[in-house]
Amino acid sequence: MAGARPNALDLPLPYPVYARAGARHAIGEIARLAAPSHRVAVISDTVVGRLHGESIAAQFPADSTRLFTIPPGEQEKTRDRWAELTDALLEWGAGRDTTVIAVGGGVIGDLAGFVASTFMRGLPVIQVPTTLLAMVDASVGGKTAVDTPFGKNLVGAFHNPSAVVIDPEVLVTLPADVLRSGLAEMIKHGVIADPSYFDAVLRFAGAVRDHGAQAPDFAATITTLITGSVRIKAEVVAEDSREGGLRQILNFGHTIAHAVERVLNFELLHGDAVAMGMVAEARIAESIGLARAGLAVAIADAVERAGLPSRLPPGISLDDVIAATHGDKKARAGSARYSLPRGIGEMETADGKWAVAVSDEQVRSALS
Ligand SMILES: NC(=O)c1ccc[n+]([C@@H]2O[C@H](COP(=O)([O-])OP(=O)(O)OC[C@H]3O[C@@H](n4cnc5c(N)ncnc54)[C@H](O)[C@@H]3O)[C@@H](O)[C@H]2O)c1
Ligand SMILES: O=C(O)C(=O)C[C@@H](O)[C@H](O)[C@H](O)COP(=O)(O)O
Ligand SMILES: [Zn+2]
């Protein structure tokens, strides 16, 4: 398995994950080992393309490598951009001898991963995450997708990467709000799986909130925490790669988060939506008698310590949010379902199911 690859993390995944300072300089070598190919298509956004896409592309022969970029932001994770990128690949002459390298945050990882999963029915993709959120969550597990006006990630595919290359050095250029938003998925990993990881994230969250990547010991501490998150995610997806059951716990906070994102036309950062979604869903879990009293306050404290929003955006219509939850992929027979915690490190499960049906009235009474 992947652990046999030199320098890869020892994880229960069918592909190697590398996480170390300077790893981006070895992408040429890693790609030749993990996905040997004739052509290389580096897909990025215009910001990350300039910062890293060009130098990563330069690690491959110039006559068979091209950098493709789109504008940055969640609003670009669309079917239109998928069509634009697949057309550009066809025009360039890409074929089944092409490897895609996704260099960017979760938007690029999801979109370029979806391009790779569909182009000529599937090309290898190497994920090179450049945001904290993409390093700890989006780059691992093989979910790829685009958004639609009906909601988040509604058109997509499971398509595992051939390798994941995490280089924490690239975090230094991240805007403060984007860096912070990655802490939300790390807090989520603590809540769903590991109280001691939750505490470790909390111990560092204030320093990241106040000093960003200039926080004392940032490089060493963030590398340890990224590895902790990747391990939690890897253990979940190794057991349930296609979300038949257990994997739904990675969706804690996301029923509300995705609904809020849709209602706000994808104008907020995913991590910020997850932060407020976790607090809201912990309140739902408490109010239906599932979670221990105090859980929602504990998660709200964690989220606030990280400088993230703990309340739904002012003025947003709760009715609109509740209506949007019905489009969630976990919904069944018209009912929204939520993956809910009982406590930190303890998720609700009943009869092998990891998501609970909650009525609109219960949601309204918990959140209004
Ligand atoms: N597939 C999954 O399992 C999974 C998991 C979690 C989130 N996601 C998806 O990830 C997306 C959110 O990703 P995100 O939070 O990384 O946002 P993002 O990809 O939109 O990136 C945020 C911003 O950071 C900039 N940026 C990226 N790296 C940079 C760097 N090193 N230096 C300077 N600027 C940089 C980008 O240009 C962009 O403007 C959402 O669409 C979400 O649905 C997917
Ligand atoms: O990997 C997973 O599974 C997750 O749910 C991780 C989430 O953080 C991520 O936002 C994912 O894209 C959500 O997936 P979706 O299936 O709810 O769209
Ligand atoms: Zn998420």
From TrEMBL:
<keyword id="KW-0170">Cobalt</keyword>
<dbReference type="GO" id="GO:0003856">
    <property type="term" value="F:3-dehydroquinate synthase activity"/>
</dbReference>
<dbReference type="InterPro" id="IPR030963">
    <property type="entry name" value="DHQ_synth_fam"/>
</dbReference>
<keyword id="KW-0520">NAD</keyword>
<feature type="binding site">
    <location>
        <begin position="106"/>
        <end position="110"/>
    </location>
    <ligand>
        <name>NAD(+)</name>
    </ligand>
</feature>
<feature type="binding site">
    <location>
        <begin position="130"/>
        <end position="131"/>
    </location>
    <ligand>
        <name>NAD(+)</name>
    </ligand>
</feature>
<protein>
    <recommendedName>
        <fullName>3-dehydroquinate synthase</fullName>
        <ecNumber>4.2.3.4</ecNumber>
    </recommendedName>
</protein>
<feature type="binding site">
    <location>
        <position position="152"/>
    </location>
    <ligand>
        <name>NAD(+)</name>
    </ligand>
</feature>
<keyword id="KW-0862">Zinc</keyword>
<dbReference type="InterPro" id="IPR030960">
    <property type="entry name" value="DHQS/DOIS_N"/>
</dbReference>
<keyword id="KW-0028">Amino-acid biosynthesis</keyword>
<comment type="function">
    <text>Catalyzes the conversion of 3-deoxy-D-arabino-heptulosonate 7-phosphate (DAHP) to dehydroquinate (DHQ).</text>
</comment>
<dbReference type="GO" id="GO:0009423">
    <property type="term" value="P:chorismate biosynthetic process"/>
</dbReference>
<dbReference type="GO" id="GO:0009073">
    <property type="term" value="P:aromatic amino acid family biosynthetic process"/>
</dbReference>
<dbReference type="InterPro" id="IPR016037">
    <property type="entry name" value="DHQ_synth_AroB"/>
</dbReference>
<dbReference type="Pfam" id="PF24621">
    <property type="entry name" value="DHQS_C"/>
</dbReference>
<feature type="domain" description="3-dehydroquinate synthase C-terminal">
    <location>
        <begin position="182"/>
        <end position="331"/>
    </location>
</feature>
<feature type="binding site">
    <location>
        <position position="185"/>
    </location>
    <ligand>
        <name>Zn(2+)</name>
    </ligand>
</feature>
<dbReference type="Pfam" id="PF01761">
    <property type="entry name" value="DHQ_synthase"/>
</dbReference>
<feature type="binding site">
    <location>
        <position position="270"/>
    </location>
    <ligand>
        <name>Zn(2+)</name>
    </ligand>
</feature>
<comment type="pathway">
    <text>Metabolic intermediate biosynthesis; chorismate biosynthesis; chorismate from D-erythrose 4-phosphate and phosphoenolpyruvate: step 2/7.</text>
</comment>
<comment type="similarity">
    <text>Belongs to the sugar phosphate cyclases superfamily. Dehydroquinate synthase family.</text>
</comment>
<dbReference type="InterPro" id="IPR056179">
    <property type="entry name" value="DHQS_C"/>
</dbReference>
<keyword id="KW-0547">Nucleotide-binding</keyword>
<feature type="binding site">
    <location>
        <position position="254"/>
    </location>
    <ligand>
        <name>Zn(2+)</name>
    </ligand>
</feature>
<keyword id="KW-0456">Lyase</keyword>
<dbReference type="InterPro" id="IPR050071">
    <property type="entry name" value="Dehydroquinate_synthase"/>
</dbReference>
<dbReference type="GO" id="GO:0046872">
    <property type="term" value="F:metal ion binding"/>
</dbReference>
<dbReference type="GO" id="GO:0000166">
    <property type="term" value="F:nucleotide binding"/>
</dbReference>
<feature type="domain" description="3-dehydroquinate synthase N-terminal">
    <location>
        <begin position="68"/>
        <end position="180"/>
    </location>
</feature>
<dbReference type="GO" id="GO:0008652">
    <property type="term" value="P:amino acid biosynthetic process"/>
</dbReference>
<feature type="binding site">
    <location>
        <position position="143"/>
    </location>
    <ligand>
        <name>NAD(+)</name>
    </ligand>
</feature>
<keyword id="KW-0479">Metal-binding</keyword>
<keyword id="KW-0057">Aromatic amino acid biosynthesis</keyword>
<dbReference type="GO" id="GO:0005737">
    <property type="term" value="C:cytoplasm"/>
</dbReference>
<keyword id="KW-0963">Cytoplasm</keyword>
